[in-house]
Structures are given as C-alpha cells and as structure tokens.
Fold these 4 entries.
Entry 1:
Amino acid sequence: MGLKLNIQPGIMGVKPYVGGVSKIAGNDNAIKLSSNENPLGPSAKAVAAYQAEATHMHRYPSEDHAALRELIAQSYRLDVDRILMGCGSDEIISFLCRAFAGAGDEVLYTEHGFGMYEISARLSGATPVSVPEKNRVTDVDALLVAVNESTRLVFIANPNNPTGTMTPDSEIARLADGLPDGCLLVLDGAYAEYVYGFDGGAAFVEARDNVVMTRTFSKIFGLGGLRIGWGYGPASVMEVLGRLKGPFNVSAPALAAAKAALEDVSYTEHCRAENEKWRGWLAAELGKIGIPSDPSFANFILARFTTADEAQAANMHLQDNGLIVRMVANYNLPQALRITIGDEAACRQVVAALAEFKAGL
C-alpha cells in the first residue's frame, strides 16, 4: 500500500525550470551563448575577494548582509533598511509569491516573460496568468484589462528576457497607477545595468507604495555561479519578505565577491561598453543576412527566423559549429533563438555560421 501524500496545491502543476544548454556532446570547446552570462567573466577583484574567503568556510556568513546592503544603498542611492538580499533574485521573486499570493489569487506576467514568474506563482498555490505582448513588447493595456480583484502581483522584466525589449517609464507609471489596492507591481531589473542611466525602477519604488524592484549580480557582474541578488520596495512589503528569509541564505564568498564587484565600477563600465559594441554589431550583421531582431537593451538579442523549423535547423547548425544558443519555444517564441552577446571572436563565429546556414537554404 503506497504512502498517501498531502501534496500542496500548485506543486504538481509546475514544469521545472530548464536552463540553457551548456554542453555539446563530443565537443569540449563549445562556446556557450545560451544563458546570458558575461563573456568577460567577473572582475578580478571579485575573484580575489572570493578566494580570500576560502579559509573561512567553516564560519557562517553574515545574517544581516549589512556590508553589502550598505554598499548597494550608497551605490544606487537607496534606503538600506529596505534592501533584502536573496540567493539570486529568483529567491526574492519566490518570497513575493509566497508572501502575497495563494489559493484563489492570480499572478500576472507577460507571455514572453521569465519562466520563474509562473513557477513561483504555482508553488505558492496561486493561478499564473500569461498576458499577450504587442510585437514582443509589454502591452500595458492588455495587462490592465487582465487585472481583476484577484490579482495580487504583476511581474514585468525591464529589459525583458528573452526579447531584450524595454517598456518606457511612462507605460510603467500608467500600469502602476492602474493597479487595484492590494496588488503589487514587480519590476525585474536583472539586465538594468546594461542600460546607460537606467535605475531599474528605483524611482518608481520611491514614489509609490505598490512597486517592488528585484536585481541580480548574475549578469553584468558575472557572478551567476554564486547565486546572489536583492530586492527593494516599500518598508511594509520588505518587512514581510524579511520574515521569509532563511538565517544564512547567502554565502560568505558570494557576499564578498558581490561587494568587490560592485566596487569595481571601471570594470562594470568596460563590460557595459563591450556589450553595447558587439550587440549592435551582431544585430546589424545578422540583419544583413535576413535574420532580424528587435532593438535589445540587454546582453542578448532575439534572432527571428521565418518558421519554427528554420529556427530549429539554425540552432543545430550553430551546434555543429560549436556554438550553443537558446531555443525559446517554451517562451512562446518557436521561430526565434536567443543569442547571448559573447566576445568579439564568438560574435564573429555566430555571424559566419548563420551566414553559411542561410546560404544553404
């Protein structure tokens, strides 16, 4: 007789998150452009800070993350008491769903939005609701139509992943102002640092009581392997989220590396400039051979093909050339490939391989 389990609502409806492919069988030198990682790697200062923590691994990390939170507050001109560190920004997203959405509630996100919004909503017992975009850009009108008395959270990534497109401040303001009482707008700023002069939504958090911002050290700072991110919002929201945080949810090496990475401003600026240079070049060169993409504000482009079959064939051709990109059919984009901006050599190899592919059609 089998064990009778009391499985909580929502869990069995989850399709586990699948990251980008990282290996090609038989090719140990493949170039990975599938997970939006910084091709230049982390700051040397961040590496040194991580290594310096190696002899202290028997000690628990800081529980309040005070040193890093204070630096974040100083760097972004935020209130330190409203910053919460997480094991990646994914954990902050999870906290938000656990704290504010449950059975009978709805969580909204755009049709091409980050997969963890749906997963976190289901795990909290809430109902995830996908809302159509307009030409791969967030459609605020559609979101406002979809909002109802059961809506508790609305997730917007800006810039969006996997499209790379941005939602203007005027539209974000209109959305925030149009939400009912008891509903939070969450601005996911994982790629915010790639946009010159962009605050990731901090001004909206300061001006309103219904907006929360999430950020990460995984992208431009090159610390994806350490799993560290943070959230910022109204005091009433962050006080609730703080009750969900485990006592030692971020490791000491991650805290040290993140602090050093944030302090190394010149390296971050270098990474941003290199990304902008090769993102523009890659998009332009692919456009010349009939592979369009929307203007991207992140560290990837969404290359579009005529059909889903063509996109899949292009993906296989890239793999045959030792290049790993991301199929995005699970983001309702079967005719596209998301290509992380690599270094110069990688970008040139992508263009050469896809030019050969298109010539052979």
Entry 2:
Amino acid sequence: MELPLFPLNLVFFPGQALPLHIFEPRYRELIRYCMKTDKLFGIILQREDEVLEPGDEQRKLIGTAAHIRSVEELRDGRMNIMTLGTKRFQVHKLNTDKSYLTAEVSHYPVLNGQTKRAEELAQRIRPKIVEYVDALSIATKTKLPLNRLPNNPTSLAFLVAMALRIENDDKQDLLSLPGIPDILNKENYLLWREVALLQHMVETQEKVEAMTGGPTGYIFPN
C-alpha cells in the first residue's frame, strides 16, 4: 500500500503517543489528506543533514504508522496534533510525486511476542529496568517515576525502547529487529551498558568534586 511519510529526527514505536506541531505547508497538506480520508501516515527516521529520496529504500527502512488521535487547528493554518503509533512498516519504494514524501510499504509484523522465550527475557530484564531508572535518577539528580511495568512482553519491549535515553541509531536498530525476543535480548544488553555508563559518570564526577571541592560542571544526558 502507499503511505504518506513524515520523516523526523526520532524513532517512533508502536504504542507511543507523540504530539506534533505541524507548520510546513507540505505537512499541513499531508495531515489534511489523512483527516479527510481517515488514513494513517508513516513516521520514519531522518537523521540530521539527511534527506530521504528515491534509492534510499535499498537500505532496510523501517518505520511506524501513526494514527491521528486529535487535531487543534490554529488560525494561521498551523496545527497541533496528537498521534499514536500503530504498526511497523517496511519501505519498498519512495515516491516524490507529491509535495510530501510517500512510499510503497508493507506491514512489518512483530514476531514471537507470546513465546516462552519472550516471557523468559521479559522477566530477565525487569530488574534491569529498575536498576536503570535508579541509576538515571542519581545521575540527573531527579526522582524519576517508575510506573507498573506491563506483563505483556510486546508491550514491555516497546516501552523500554521508548524510555531508553540512547542514540537514534540504537533505537532504530531496536525498531528494525523482527521479533520480540530479539528486541528484549538487545535491550538486556543496552540496559546493562547504560547502567554501567551512568554509574561510571557519577563516580567520576564525585571523585573530581572531592578533589576540587566543587561541582565539575559536567552535564548528564537528558
């Protein structure tokens, strides 16, 4: 099927709520088309200084379809919209025959979400999620809330993917993995890596502060 595309410098996951401010004329046209036809549009990663164009589909381009939940139209034509991530898709052909980018895509299904392996990995990473939130709270000197974690391995995998404060390339790798066990297994490593990094940064700052008698001015990632 053909899907209108909204390239952004972020990775969008199924189940994710994302507010967007629409100001460019081409994307106003895209949103109005989706509102009129009750169709989804696709959000796909476009890195800084990158412009997606025909030929790029030779790479494995995976995105997530967005459903428009609400629209606030402003007097000057701009819009504030709230979207919700639905299904993943894979791009097969990019088209530039409209003012906005479109693509011929196919559904990229989420595999093995109810398997025993998925359940085992979901249980394994639960304590690591708590450890990560605690380490991040200490590093940022902010008490970060940790709500009840979902029991469903698919929901848990995508929640962790949204919550991890990692580079877009790492998030895109997670989105592109075929099955939930693959995603959870990768997240198991990423949680371990990020906790180790956060703990090292905190220890380093504390040592420097002890030596200098004051804060280092080091800024932790948001």
Entry 3:
Amino acid sequence: MSGHSKWATTKYRKGAQDSARAKVFAKIIRQVEVAAREGGSDMTANASLRTMYAKARDSSVPIDTIERAIKRGSGELEGVRYEAISYEGYAPDGVAVIVECLSDNRNRTGAEIRNIFSKNGGSMAEPGAVSWQFERKGTVSVPRTFDEDRVLEVAMEAGAEDLSDDGEQWVVTCAPGDLMSVRAALETAELSPGAGELTMVPTTTVEVTDESEAKRVLRLIEALDDHDDVQNVYANFDIPDSVMAAYGD
C-alpha cells in the first residue's frame, strides 16, 4: 500500500481527534476558489469545480460558504488571488515527498516549506528531482460495506485501472481523465462513492521498518500538511500498518 493512501487514513483519524475541521474547510475552500478562477463558475463546463464542490460537500462545508468561494474565484466577489506551487524534497530515509500549495506569496511560502523540511530532518530538492517517482491518477473511495466484486465490476466497466483496500474503504484508481465518469458510474450503481480527487501515486516505494525512523518521516509529513498554504502532501514511504496505527492514536 502506498504512502499517500496510508497517510490520508492516518490524517483523517488525527483530524477527527484534533477537531481540525476549520483548517480542512479553509484548504478546501481555497481549492474551490482556484478551480472557479481557472475554469469559470459554471459547474457543467468546469470538471475541476464539480470535483471540488463534491469534495467540499463530502466534508460538510456549508453550501453558502462554497458558493461565496465560487464567486470570489470567478470575480463576482473580491478575494485573494492564489498561485499553485509545487515543492519537492526528501524525508528521512530517502523518502520522496511532493508538496502542493496554493499561496498568495511565493517567497514566504517557499521559505516556510524549506524551514519545515530542515527542522524535521528532511531536505528540499530541485524541481523534477523526485516527481518522476510518481504518476498523476484519479481516485474515488467507496465504503467497505459494499461487496468488493460488485465495486470492481462497476469501476472497471467505467474505465478504472485498479481497486485496493486501504483498511477502511475501497479505493478505485483511474486515469485523471476518467475520474468523473468512474465516479458517476459508481453513483449510478448506488455504491455511495466519495467526491473523488486527483492524486499522485508513487511508482516506487521506500520501505521504512525502523519505528523511530518511521515516526520521523510521519512527523515531517504532518508538519507540512499542517501548513495553511499546503493543499496536498504525497510521499512514497512504505511503513508497517502497526506503526501507522500507533502514530494515529
């Protein structure tokens, strides 16, 4: 199981325990604004906005908050202009890390991300240094209460590439361009899919078996993820489930 899906599960548990809903709302709303700015406010013509709208609703963001974000993004309301920036680096044990940000101040964000890497035993890298170890994919989650064979059948017929089990839900993987059609098929089959998202899936992984080193890796990932400008953190670690579960407790 790849690092990103494991961390996403652990992050979800910690978020629930830490009452981090406000921070989650703020990050999602920023993504909604950017989607509206780049593709317009018409969700029928803007697939990215449809995806972000569904993600916001799945996260229980109020509808009026989402609508204001769309208006800010499309220029109907005044708002801050965010720039998409990606950073690459290494966590302890040579784990590759990609950090995706939305920022209104590139210099400030870059300095702060570099400082987080340095303080947590990692290091920044040049653009392209680690991104070759990842592929962009679309993913949709489905509750594990549904039969695996049924989920697999529906997903594959719609163009999905893979189905995996992250311990708490089925995760359907597909090409980025097939995300909306795969999710629509799962929804039509009444399989209660999540919003779906574009993610970076590692093509190679780094096994981290030492518990102290694994926790160092996870502390860096958590520190990056906690930064207000950071939208997504991807890493190619392979850490034992027992260590992941202990870190999430």
Entry 4:
Amino acid sequence: MILLCGIPSETPLRMVTSRVEEVGAPYVMLNQRRFAECEIWFELNHGEITGELRIADDVYKLREFTAVYPRMMDDRFLPELSDEPPDSPLRSYCRSFHDTLIRWMEITPALVVNRCAPMASNSSKPYQAQLIREHGFLIPETLITNDPELVRDFRAKHGRIIYKSISAVRSIVQVLGDEDDERLECIRWCPTQFQAFVDGTNLRVHTIGGEAFATAVRSEATDYRYATSQAGEPAALREVVLSDELKEQCLQLSKSLGLEFAGIDLKVTPDDEVYCFEVNPSPAFSYYEGNAGQPISAGVARHLASGLAICDRAVRSQN
C-alpha cells in the first residue's frame, strides 16, 4: 500500500494521486490539514519496526506501507494553526505528530520518495555544488562573501554576474546591475552567493526510478520561473531527449545524493558544455509537465507502485 502525505489539492500531489489511481495501486491519503484526527506510533525492536497510523476512524499497520510520497508543507504554517499561540496544545500536538511521522519515514524499509536526510544537501548550495562537481558537471565560478569590494572585483572580472540565496530558501535569481551598487553594503549582514552568468539553454531534468524527463526552457529572463515579471512574457517549455551519456550522468547524480526523485537544473552552452546549478529534492514538477507534456507524475506513480511489487516478491521468496 502507498502512503501519500500532504495537502490533497496541492497540484503535484493531486497529479501523483491521479496517476496512482490509474495504475491501480492501493493507497492511503494523509491530509496534513487534518492532523488533529491522526495519530502515529512506532517502536524498533531487534531491527523490526512495528507501529500504527490512525487517520480518522481508519487504523493501518505501518508495515502495510510499501512506499511513501511525502509532499508536505512546513507544519508550523498550516492554516489550522494560524490563530494558535506558540504554546498552544494543538500546535504542540501538530509538531509532535509530524516529527514522529518524519522519524518513521527515515527508518522504514518502505520506498520513500524522498527521505529527509538526503534532501538536506540542498540546504547548503555551496556544499551541494561540491557534490555535483564530483559527477563531471561544470559549476559556474562562484563567490560567497559579505565584502562588497570583493563583489565589485568579481563583477569587473566576469562582466555579468547573478546573485541568489545560499540556503534552500527560495530566492529570485537576479543579474547584479549598476543600480545595485549601493545596496551591496547590505551583504555585510547577510553573506550572499554570486556567480558568473552562464549563457545558453536552461534544462530541467527530472529523475525518477531510472527514468529521466528533460525539459528545455527558452526565456530572456534571468530566472525563468518569474519570466513574465522579468521579461514581459512567460517562458516557452518543450520536451527534449537527452544523450545516453547525459541521462546516465543525471541518474548517477541523483543516486549519489540518495534521492529517489530529483529536479536537476542544468544549462547547456552554445559550445555544448553542461553546467549544473543545483538539485531540487522536492521538485514542483507540475509546471514542467503542464507546459511540456512529459508524464512525470506517471513516472512517480510507477516508481511508488514498484515498492509494492518489490514487497510482493520478498513475501513470495520467504514462502
């Protein structure tokens, strides 16, 4: 049985749920917003995990779950807690429930897409960049600093540079312009990442279960996610087929990071050099599937269903 966790109306989770239904795999939906109706407990004895998950009036043995797809928002910001004081019993229960759920996901033998520990590499872009480089991808020349003069020297060297967050917190990638010079003093209180601008075609590659779905993005915007506001028109997305070498390189990168599902941001230069900017461990793939038509959600569903198949084979072999 597959466990889907999150807010059912959220587009990626809704799409995966539909695809899971299409493949006929049994599943349970855990709606985060109804946490007050849920309970979970587990214990670990001699390497075996036992426990139960209650969702409203239904109780499930944790060992029944062969795969998990957690796509959850930060539970501290759930709408049900918006009027709750910091020390309220409801807020405390919500945190305790989610903490126990996540701890179980980290140790369950079920297929989890993705566990928290492997996702942590994205919390530090500089750290993740070092791991990316080990797989043969180019990395833009990078400066992380809180010294405005170093930034000015870096810009003088490269001409066109961009800046963005170092952490996993989403930031809008921007080109550093002359108008930003006075604001550079602000980085003294917030070290910032600057990179040489790389010209070429943006490529998002989603890897899941040995499959790779590649989308080329054409836009004049620096950050194509905000193409309309930056360039006046939305980005144009189209499906592309990767070379066998690049596909394998992407799959190996995801595997080395311990990610079952990943969104890899690449840029291919006019000279066919491939730069990698980061690996997203919880990709909002619906933007790419909706605009380019690749069946990414179906790939996720197939991979989740494979957990059930693996479990069935294991049971048959024991018998």
